[in-house]
Amino acid sequence: MIKNDNLEGMIDRIMAGLPAGLTTLGRDAEQNIRAAIQSSLRKMDLVTREEFDIQREVLGRTRARLEALEKQVARLEKKD
Description:
By secondary structure, this protein is an all-alpha fold. The protein folds into two domains: 1-46, no CATH class; 47-80. It has four helices and no strands. Helix 1 packs across helix 3 (27-43).
């Protein structure tokens, strides 16, 4: 189950925007909205913030290693 503050805030805004007659459905409406949003998000094949941050760190290390190797190759080419 996807759970975070942004999702909770989105659901709160949706619930606040419902007409008065629908808000009386209360918990059932909120659960249905929550399920629909979570289902849509899962279909989008999104990654979590944690997964994104991990991949960003890996990319940063890879980029730094690539730059170091490029400098090393340039130095070796100058020796020839």
